[in-house]
Amino acid sequence: MSAGTKRLVTGGAGFIGCNAARRWLDAGHAVVVVDDLSRRGADRNLAWLREQPGDLTFERIDIRDRLAVEDCLARHRDAEVVLHLAAQVAVTTSVEDPRHDFEVNALGTFNLLEATRRHLPGAVFLYASTNKVYGGLETEGVELHQGRYRFRHRPGGIPETQPLDFHSPYGCSKGAADQYVRDYARIYRLRTVCFRQSCIYGYRQFGVEDQGWVAWFTIAAVTGQPVFIYGDGKQVRDLLFVDDLCDAYDAAVARAESLRGAVFNLGGGPAHTLSLLELVGLLEKLTGRPVRPRFADWRPGDQPVFVADISAASAALAWRPRTDVATGVRLLHAWVESNRSLFDGGGLSPHVGGLPTPPRAGPER
Which of 81, 103, 179, 300 pairs with 171 at a CA distance of 20 to 30 A? Predict the structure, then answer.
């Protein structure tokens, strides 16, 4: 992949998207941001991107609109990378409005794959899937160890060989898209790579109740808003800092031909995990004041633990997460502190939790 190429990012005004776009602008690439600006904070992230030096183009498009997607990719048929991040991202929202969830995640991805097949068949297509394709993992043994939950028989985490078990409308829509992306490499020879991502966190993340729990806890701790924990707070997730995620994207682009059709788990792995209570402790040290979370009953389907086995990604991409959780949380806290005006009085709901889950659905990643 030569330097100075054009790269298209759907959901490019979102948290991950704007970080990837900024990195590629800094590297001298032309970047096309495709976004409908429906997500909270997207307009602020777009304004921030427009302040950065480099060749940036913005296309306000809803990926459910097939003709608009076709027209966009036809006009940018010289793009050599498509990073597909645009999505409906909350389990709770998917339960409340499953049709909208399906149309954005499954149909929207299909629209983009078809447009790529027609207009950019040689492009690298990176898709942000989710660990929710593995479902609730009810058959995995879990135990309490030193104040936190862990898998009894999976010290390395959940591998890609874990059977798929789509759980919740969100899991179904993202899982369907995941399989379409994989199959378009087999059937149409597109250069796709699918990443089943775990808990991503970092700068410019406007976390809210339904998604982005690390960012939400941090925002609440800084602004003095209440934090609710559903369960005992010993739930554990593997965390991946957004800079490390972008490293993986770059590694995949560089190796795209050999990775055609590959699927990888992408998270912090066993070395980068945190419980809800541990995050509270870190934030109390950073803010210098108690957070005092409020506790409520467990919500049905909440996983006590999810940790991704990232050994396949590490081997294929020559990649490992570099940011330990203490450093990552410190960097996120510093960004929130330096941008308090974005959050003070910003209309965030005070009634939120760490890993909120609707009935019959699993927790957010």
Answer: 81
Q: Does the domain formed by 6-342 have CATH 3.40.50.720?
A: yes
Write down the catalytic residue from 134, 149, 170, 201. 170
pTM comes to 0.92
The bridge status of strand 236-241 relative to strand 148-151 is: unpaired
3-state SS record for the chain:
CCCCCEEEEECCCCHHHHHHHHHHHHCCCEEEEEECCCCCCHHHHHHHHHCCCCCEEEEECCCCCHHHHHHHHHHCCCEEEEEECCCCCCHHHHHHCHHHHHHHHHHHHHHHHHHHHHHCCCCEEEEEEEHHHHCCCCCCCEEEECCEEEECCCCCCECCCCCCCCCHHHHHHHHHHHHHHHHHHHHHCCEEEEEEECEEECCCCCCECCECHHHHHHHHHHHCCCCEEECCCCCEEEEEEHHHHHHHHHHHHHCCCCCCCEEEEECCCCCCEEEHHHHHHHHHHHHCCCCCCEEECCCCCCCCEECECCHHHHHHHCCCCCCCHHHHHHHHHHHHHHCHHHCCCCCCCCCCECCCCCCCCCCCC
Q: Which amino acid is present at 101?
A: D
203 labelled catalytic: no
Tell me the average pLDDT across 5-19.
97
Contact, 176 vs 286, CB < 8 A?
A: no
Q: β-strands 6-10, 30-35: how paired?
A: parallel
List, for residues 194-237, the tens digit of each pLDDT value. 999 999 999 999 877 567 889 999 999 999 988 889 899 999 99
